[in-house]
Structures are given as structure tokens and as C-alpha cells.
Amino acid sequence: MTRAQGPPLATPDRAMLPGRRGGPALDVPSLVARARTWDPRAVGRLISMVENAGPELREVAAALAPHTGRAQVIGLTGPPGVGKSTTTTALVRSLRARDRRVGVLAVDPSSPFSGGALLGDRVRMQAHSGDRDVYIRSMATRGRLGGLAPATPQALRVLDAAGCDIVLVETVGGGQSELEIASLADTTLVLMAPGMGDGIQAAKAGILEVADIFVVNKADREGADQTVGDLRAMLSLGGRHAEPGAWRPPIIKTVASQEGDSGIDEVLDRLDEHRAWLASSGEGHRRRTDHVRREIEAIAIAGLRERLGNVHWSATLSSLAASVVAGETNPYRAADDLLGAL
Ligand SMILES: Nc1nc2c(ncn2[C@@H]2O[C@H](COP(=O)(O)OP(=O)(O)OP(=O)(O)O)[C@@H](O)[C@H]2O)c(=O)[nH]1
Ligand SMILES: [Mg+2]
Prior knowledge:
Elements: E1 3-4, H1 28-35, H2 40-52, H3 57-64, E2 72-77, H4 84-97, E3 102-107, H5 117-129, E4 134-138, H6 152-161, E5 166-171, H7 177-180, E6 187-192, H8 198-205, H9 207-210, E7 213-216, H10 224-236, E8 251-253, H11 264-281, H12 283-309, H13 311-325, H14 331-341
Parallel strand pairs: 2-5, 2-6, 3-4, 3-5, 6-7, 7-8
Antiparallel strand pairs: 1-4
The structure holds guanosine-5'-triphosphate and magnesium ion.
């Protein structure tokens, strides 16, 4: 299901981080304190705690809260095979060159990071300069369609509190998380590639609407300019981006897979611009508030479900169901009664 990436940052799957030589386990405040000094084992442990939704979840969330809100969260989405992982790798490289501390959440258990170029790169970087300022982690997806795991916002907060300047979240191609990413990220990158008939398909998937920046990757292939043209034409048709004062999503051509990748630095420049625009327009605050609203709602609904499942409520529910079957009341009235009793 879940795994941490890479030997230097690997996190054993136990509830607590033991002290050296199996000494006393660390409590949540100590783990958070360690994570804030960028101790990768503490970061990994905290992410496991929120992912497992164990008894420490609430304590972890409370301990992280004062230390969050600084990291820029970037979502990468797009059709399968378009180059999201490769582009993430290239972005990490360039971000490190700009001396930013980077976190990567790959919402895709089959992500090729473990054997891919990024890890080799990171190991090299460490060998040369002791660079440990990249943390990579795979998150499990939710269900067959691959929606984002409910723990993803908390995992982001762990990386935020740990001092990441930027966190890249790669979604699994073609899944439900493709659109969900926009309800998590400050800035959403939508990747396309030449010759995928993207324009039309993307419009159907609503992917055009969530894009803050378009990346036409594999620009070394024939048809890249055609894809850029298609996107421009789609954007000119209106929608959210055409409103006054709205951000106009730039379209950037990249080649992510080659040594000395091209276009990646421009993507970073545009990300900086978008971050500045989010701040100056107030949209950044509005987005974050909106995202947290949804998060609270989801937690509340999950809590409600859980309560409905406990013995007491289960009995109430059964007796209400019996009343409906007996024709003494109706399901709407019964639901009101149930909610009222909560
Ligand atoms: N020619 C070319 N190939 C590329 C480029 N970027 C990525 N690729 C190749 O495209 C293939 C898919 O790349 P990935 O990065 O795994 O794509 P992805 O979007 O993460 O794929 P999923 O996670 O499976 O949706 C790989 O073989 C890459 O080497 C590029 O700019 N040009
Ligand atoms: Mg991928």
C-alpha cells in the first residue's frame, strides 16, 4: 500500500519512532519537533500516523497546525503517460538548483520513482553535497478509480511543517484524482503531450478549467505546436479564465526526459508568478479556505458515518427503519429524527 521512497529516507512502518538502539519511543510532540529539524524518519513516521488514521491522528493534526501555511503546494495532473513523473523529476532537479527544499507526494502506488532517475539523482546529490533536502513519498490511492487518499491534506501539512518550500503532488493518470488535485493544490499544472487528441478530451474531463499552467510535454515530438494551438483555441472559448482580472494560464512547451531538459525553468518562473498573483489577488487565501472547508466537511461526514455505525445509533436506526416499513413514518422524517438525535 504505502511506502516511503529510497533507502536514506525509508521509514519503518511502526507506530512510533524508536530511539537509537530500540530505546524509548518518541511521542507526538517530540516527533513534530524532530520533523521541524527535517529529520526524514520523523517526517515519515508522522505521515504514516496520519495515513493510518490511528489514535494519534488528532494529536498530530493539533501539533502541526501552528507550523503550517508556508509551503507552496503544486499539483501535477494529466492523461496517463504524458510525463508527470518525468516532469516532477525535472522540476525537483531545478528546484534544488534554486536551493528550495522540496517534498514530493506521488499519489500512485505504481509510480516509477523507486527505480527511476530521481532517486539515482538524489543519491548522487547526497554523495556530492550531503543534500537531503528532498523528501519523496508515495501515497495510497482511494479505491479503484484512484481518488486522493483522505490523508493527503495532512501529509501535506507534515511536509509543510517540516519546512518544505514547495510540495509537488503527482496524481495517477486517468483516475479520479486528476480533478481532485485542484481541491488540494495552490497551483495546478495540467500536462498534455502531442498527438493525444488532448484538447477535446481535456475539455470533457473539465481539466481545462482546473489548469493554472499548461505544460505541453514531449515537445521534442511532432505536433507540439498543434497541441499548443488547440489549447489556445479552447481557452479562447471562455470559461473561468476569461473573466476580468482572472489569471490567464500560460502554455509552456517542455522536454522533461532529456539530460538538460528544456522548458522546466520557465515552468518554475511561471509558478513563482502564479504564487505572486495568488497573494496579490486574494485568490490564494480564498482557495485555501475553500479547500479546508471541504476537508472539514469530509471529516464531519466521516464522523457522522462512524457514529451511525455504533451500537446505540444502529439500534435507533433499526427502530426508525421498522417504523418506516410499518408505514408509521417516512424515510425523510426518520432521517430528520436521526440527525436531530445526534
Ligand atoms: N520523447 C519524450 N518522452 C518523454 C518526455 N517526458 C517523458 N517521456 C517518456 O514518457 C513515458 C511516460 O513518462 P512518465 O513520466 O512515466 O508519465 P506519467 O504521466 O507519470 O505516467 P503515469 O503516471 O503512468 O500516468 C516515459 O517513457 C518517459 O521517458 C519528453 O519530454 N519527451
Ligand atoms: Mg507517473
